[in-house]
Structures are given as C-alpha cells and as structure tokens.
C-alpha cells in the first residue's frame, strides 16, 4: 500500500505485463475471491457478459495502471482489447472495493473469508429465535433464545436468508445477506 501511495504522489506511471498470471494463477486456492470477481462481472451490465479477467483489467485502468495482458488466443485478444475494456461501464465504489480485495487475496493465494453476519436483538424485553432459510424453504435453527440486547455472529454466504421469530412465533422477519466474501454485515432485529 505504501508503494502505491508514493507512486501516485510522484505521478510515476506503472505498467504491468502478464498481470493475469499473477492474479489468476492461484484461482484454485481462492475460490471465494474468484466468485467475488464473477459476481462483479455479472453485476456490471445485464445485456453483456464480462469475464473476471476483464473486470481486473477495468479495475487496473480505473486506477491509472497500464497493463499488457499476454494473448494466448484470438479470443483473449478480443476479450482483453483496450477498446473492449474502455467500453465497459465504470466500477462503482463498492465494486471497486470488492475487486481490490479479490485481487489482493488471489495474488497472496489466501482466500477471502466467508461473510460474517451479526444479529443484534434490539428488543429490551423479548427473546428472539434465529433460523437459516434454505432455498427450498426449510428453516433450520441457528440460535434460539437470543436475549434482549444480545448479539450472535455466524459465517455465511452472500444471498443467504435468515429468519427471526419472536418467542411465540407470532412475528417473523427475513434478513438477506448482502455482504460479500471478506465482509461483515450487521442486522438489528426488531419484530
């Protein structure tokens, strides 16, 4: 991080050659980081499919880092062409941050942690019961009797749905995990 600050401060131009090898050579060790890149690629534009490699090149260009991707095929030539990358929509701040974490993780060969969800019982006088809701609608208990003011942490996955009930199951509320790999999301439960 310090090196990048010095480079920007002194307006030193950086150019990277064969950057894809450095990022994607450890993809089997970092499936969650790779999944995060895929998620960003899918979120960019609905009528165009982008690859994780294109997302990395877009991120580099948005940070004024030149890259010379090696071309192994005509497909790679078209996929990684400067005109293709320039035509991509800009990464939002959130997408930029997700790509940054994924690239760093993949280059280190250390995968991102699953998202951490924290549930806080905001009631001063009621216990809540927390369940994980599977895609088929089954609800499995993850923490029963979460007392007033108490919190509960669990590792989960993006898109998972949790359900909170009050003590007699008369009130129900769903919570969908929006956090990505390596992130934390807090839910304040009030029924």
UniProtKB/TrEMBL annotation:
InterPro entries: NAD(P)_OxRdtase_dom_sf, VHL_beta_dom_sf, VHL_sf. It comes from the Eukaryota. This is NADP-dependent oxidoreductase domain-containing protein.
């Amino acid at each position: 991080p310090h090196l990048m600050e010095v480079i920007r401060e002194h307006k030193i131009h950086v150019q990277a050659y064969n950057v894809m090898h450095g990022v994607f050579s450890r993809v089997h060790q970092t499936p969650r980081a790779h999944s995060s890149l895929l998620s960003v690629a899918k979120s960019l534009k609905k009528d165009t499919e982008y690859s994780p490699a294109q997302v990395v090149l877009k991120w580099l260009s948005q940070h004024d880092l030149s890259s010379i991707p090696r071309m192994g095929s005509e497909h790679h030539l078209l996929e990684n062409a400067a005109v293709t990358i320039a035509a991509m929509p800009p990464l939002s701040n959130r997408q930029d941050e997700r790509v940054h974490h994924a690239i760093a993780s993949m280059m280190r060969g250390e995968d991102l942690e699953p998202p951490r969800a924290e549930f806080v019982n905001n009631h001063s006088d009621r216990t809540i019961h927390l369940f994980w809701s599977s895609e088929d609608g089954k609800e499995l208990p993850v923490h029963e009797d979460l007392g007033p003011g108490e919190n509960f942490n669990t590792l989960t996955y993006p898109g998972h749905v949790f359900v909170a009930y009050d003590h007699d199951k008369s009130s129900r509320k769903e919570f969908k995990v929006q956090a990505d790999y390596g992130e934390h999301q807090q839910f304040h439960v009030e029924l």
